[in-house]
Design brief:
four-stranded antiparallel sheet, flat, alpha/beta, 698 residues, six-stranded mixed sheet, 45% helix
């Protein structure tokens, strides 16, 4: 039963409606097994009486207290006074008080599970009123519910919070975080809430002082902790402070910048005009390592940093950059031809179907349009361009984009990681096989020699190393195409099709490539199981194709229980030392053989490698490896023709390249390069389209 003390009710910081929502949830909590376990009935009744009574017992509930200025000793003393007052007035025994604390703690878990936030707004004041100290994790649960869960979807017949109630909820969340950080070790979540609320009050400097004054132990702060401060500095045009914070964030390994946030920062600097060569430098920038701190070179430095963290940006970020440059260079360049407005129906954009035909509203939405017109050497370029896929040249600036490949140590990292993954995979296969009950061997069944392994836990890694040694020491012509044999033979089939694999090899040979087929040993046996229900027997023609591959040295059989993917991946970074004999086997753009240009060896596969990419390399390096080596294919015309989708000739990542030097009036090229042209891949544009930004030196 919910009771109300009318004399006290006016002092409470929440209304009766909010309390009733709290009471509904608390009644369920008090009836839960978690609370009732080994508890006397009279204790339950006594605790229920006070937890369901809308009454205040101490002065701390409604007193505005600046907890952030308290020491731990002062806070504990304040809490102890509230506890004494609460126990004096309620006459709860220590066991009953402990039960009340347990119920309020469990209420946090209940609200998190049920996605309910309003009841905890009231529960927090009861925690304070009772002078209760929650466990470390319980404060975290309260904080999560009060700061993360949708306040307008409370699940217990709640009405949306009014403006003042929402403000109160924000205040309570900050209070929970502050008290937690005084009593326990501050953590990234509590600090994020405190920082966000301080920024809302316009106290960015106070938020920075908070982050610099507290210790989080071994827990490192992330981007989201600093981001509200950076966003506020940028919005206010306070680039001096924004740059110092950005540098601090950039130097921390735990801070991983999101693409749009990097673009927002650079756009803010551009909007303030600091990328103009005639602007004043950013104050204090030289002291933190930026010299010069204005103009073209300053832009190049910031985007170089961005390119280390970000692969691509969104179209909305591209548009923000465009408008920022338009403001910052307002009297210098005309960028009007680069953007147009599109009219869209508002209900279509929002995905709604409630509007009638007469109610449909139209909304203007800007977009950058392609501009491949060649720019003058002294012209600011902020344009959407399409890079020529075969020459890698940007027509707007005449800059040539590069194919950025793995460096030597990164290739070694790939090699070492694959060896480790091979051993781990083999160990897992062996454990799975040993866990299976022995079965009576049937012809061609799973009891065949295909599944026999080795007791050596490093068997797979050693076999993979042996393969690398073979590739590096074999004589003859170097391999220029590594074929994922199982992938090609299975493509579009329900079985292993050696005729299709032969077509692939012959097609590559006709293109003046030297292919090596990587094939699991199992699929070269006369019969094998494709699935538990299908036993495939190779035809004499299939066996003849296999013998032909072997006779020409074009087939490598991967041992049983070893994953063939690792072999063709590793072949891409192998030196082929003897066969290559120091020569470069990559194909230039101007070759006379009609071969498509790019890195060799290329890898022929449609495998998306979803199982491997997170383990192999960080995303940027994985993209570099894939884009420069992987060649996809399709089989057409009733399996008589194969077409390829060549590996990239230039990398799909942010990169800067020099533009050709301008020509003098006499027609002679002036010494030195032109300004750097930066090209940003945009996630929702076509594959070869880029946002191109070039700031002329003069």
């Amino acid at each position: 039963t919910v009771t109300t003390d009318n004399n006290q009710n006016e002092q409470l910081p929440y209304n009766k409606e909010l309390f009733n929502q709290y009471a509904t949830v608390m009644e369920e909590v008090l009836q839960s097994r978690r609370v009732l376990r080994n508890i006397k009935e009279e204790d339950i009744q006594m605790v229920s009486k006070y937890l369901l009574q809308n009454k205040q017992y101490s002065s701390t509930t409604t007193t505005t207290t600046n907890y952030s200025q308290m020491t731990e000793e002062e806070l504990r003393s304040n809490i102890a006074k509230s506890k004494d007052t609460y126990l004096t007035q309620t006459q709860l025994t220590p066991a009953q008080y402990k039960l009340a604390l347990m119920a309020l703690t469990y209420m946090g878990d209940y609200c998190a599970k049920k996605r309910v936030s309003i009841p905890l707004l009231v529960a927090w004041y009861i925690v304070k009123d009772g002078g209760m100290i929650l466990r470390d994790k319980a404060y975290g649960t309260y904080l999560y519910v009060l700061s993360s869960i949708d306040r307008n979807n409370n699940g217990v017949s709640a009405t949306p919070l009014k403006g003042e109630e929402e403000e109160e909820r924000t205040k309570v969340a900050e209070e929970v975080a502050t008290i937690h950080d005084i009593l326990f070790q501050p953590d990234e979540k509590t600090l994020s809430v405190r920082v966000k609320n301080m920024v809302k009050r316009g106290d960015e400097h106070g938020a920075m002082e908070l982050l610099s004054s507290v210790s989080t132990g071994n827990q490192e702060l992330k981007q989201r902790t600093y981001l509200p401060i950076l966003q506020s500095y940028c919005a206010k045009g306070n680039i001096d402070c924004a740059l110092k914070l950005y540098k601090n964030m950039y130097d921390q390994k735990s801070v991983i910048f999101e693409a749009d946030e990097q673009a927002l920062f650079i756009a803010s600097v551009a909007k303030a005009g600091y990328f103009r060569n005639d602007s004043n430098p950013v104050k204090g920038a030289e002291e933190i390592g930026y010299s010069p701190a204005h103009g073209t070179q300053f832009f190049d430095r910031l985007v170089s940093d961005m390119a280390n963290d970000v692969l691509e940006i969104s179209s909305s970020a591209a548009l923000k950059l465009y408008h920022a440059f338009k403001v910052g260079f307002h009297d210098a360049m005309d960028l009007s031809e680069d953007v147009v407005s599109l009219t869209k129906k508002k209900d279509e954009m929002e995905g709604t179907t409630t509007a009638t035909e007469g109610d449909i509203q139209e909304e203007e939405e800007e977009t950058l349009v392609l501009n491949n017109n060649q720019a003058n050497h002294d012209e600011l370029v902020v344009s959407r361009v399409k890079v020529n896929r075969t020459t890698a040249i940007c027509q707007r600036t005449n800059a040539t984009l590069r194919l950025i490949m793995l460096e030597e140590e990164q290739g070694q990292q790939l090699h070492d990681t694959l060896i480790q993954m091979a051993d781990a995979q083999y160990e897992a296969f062996e454990a799975k096989n040993k866990a299976k009950k022995p079965k009576i061997r049937k012809e061609g069944g799973v009891g065949s020699n295909d599944n026999k392994g080795s007791d050596d836990p490093h068997f797979a890694g050693k076999q993979l190393s042996n393969f690398v040694d073979w590739v590096n020491t074999r004589e003859g012509e170097p391999f220029t195409a590594i074929v994922d044999g199982a992938n090609v033979a299975y493509f579009g089939q329900g079985h292993v099709d050696y005729l299709q694999l032969k077509l692939m090899v012959e097609t590559l040979e006709n293109m003046n490539e030297n292919p090596l087929v990587i094939m699991p040993q199992k699929y070269t046996n006369s019969k094998f199981r494709v699935s538990s229900k299908f036993l495939q027997k190779l035809t004499p023609e299939d066996l003849e194709i296999i013998e032909g591959f072997e006779a020409k040295g074009q087939l490598f059989k991967v041992p049983a229980l070893c994953l063939d993917d690792y072999y063709w991946m590793l072949a891409s970074v192998s030196d082929q030392t003897v066969s290559r004999n120091g020569t470069n086997i990559d194909v230039p753009t101007d070759n006379d053989d009609g071969r498509w240009p790019g890195i060799r060896p290329m890898l022929i596969s449609n495998d998306q490698m979803r199982d491997h990419k997170l383990e192999l390399l960080e995303p940027r390096l994985f993209r570099r490896w894939c884009s420069s080596h992987i060649v996809n294919y399709s089989v057409k015309n009733n399996k008589t023709e194969i077409s390829f989708f060549a590996a990239d000739f230039f990398s799909r990542e942010i990169q800067g390249n020099p533009t050709p030097a301008p020509f003098s009036l006499s027609g002679q090229e002036e010494s030195g390069n032109g300004a750097t042209a930066w090209h940003f891949p945009v996630s929702d544009w076509d594959n070869h389209e880029r946002l191109c930004i070039r700031i002329p030196y003069h």
